[in-house]
């Protein structure tokens, strides 16, 4: 799909300190897939969550900093926590670390590359990209638009490490405008300034989303042209954005749309003041996903069809990340394999092999990963501990 040389980034060592259910833990991984085995509640997802913090953002659970800290017998949270990973990639071996320093005055998350301070985890993107699929996403197609927007922004963030900062700035600008609207004595010039910033951020966020969705749709279409068909265990998806700003950007230059949106914000002040919120903009955009072979909205498919469609979409996104960044992403699949029939399971393993990136998977039943025998590295996970898996 791309003329770019593809680098494979692999996590060869993962260390946790006072993170979730682990006071101290270490995993050393080789070249094959990594399978984490253990009963529900053992801490498998915690390990994937630690890896997800090597990507910009708040990780696969979108947790707060305090939620990452391990707790002692009396429920007292540790004063700090850390995740460190040695990554082998295009630039050789590099150690990426993130966490909250114990007894630090400011409870802020720190990031380091080979021990040197980095601005944020966005700096890790030069060395590793991470994408994931979790059970929490199963209701994506039936849930509210806000869930699909978060999913969409995660898709964008995997190829554009600065997207998260733009989205956060947009949310701050929206809150600032809402506060100003509440005060009837606000000088209109203050609102003009905030709305000018808000319009610029809105167009930047919408444009980044549109570009990612456009490329994702093109990649899905190309995959079908290169041999995909409508009988695949993971059906191809249609993807599009629904929003006023996006519709305008599809017709007009970004500078013109920015001016139009700024004027629309000014005109909508009485309406938005009455509503207590801004009623138009990319903060209300929806991601429309369809079941391509059946030509129906994804939400109208069966539960099994929705799961299969979501997996197909995740695979297409991983290919897009490789194409756009030149780095095959590390894929995190939390409790995905257990719910697939043997045909879909085999198809998933084959698709993961074709991606070429490192894969970390969790499950409770070792037999679900039997097809990976001899290739996967398996680890047994119990409460607070992880060690190489040994069959009875």
From TrEMBL:
PROSITE patterns membership: RECF_1
Highest taxon listed in the record's lineage: Bacteria
Key word Oxidoreductase present: no
Keywords: ATP-binding, Coiled coil, Cytoplasm, DNA damage, DNA repair, DNA replication, DNA-binding, Nucleotide-binding, SOS response
InterPro entries hit by this protein: DNA-binding_RecF, DNA-binding_RecF_CS, P-loop_NTPase, RecF/RecN/SMC_N, RecF_2
Binding site for ATP: 38-45
RecF/RecN/SMC N-terminal domain location: 11-357
The protein's name in its UniProt record: DNA replication and repair protein RecF
Chain's gene name: recF
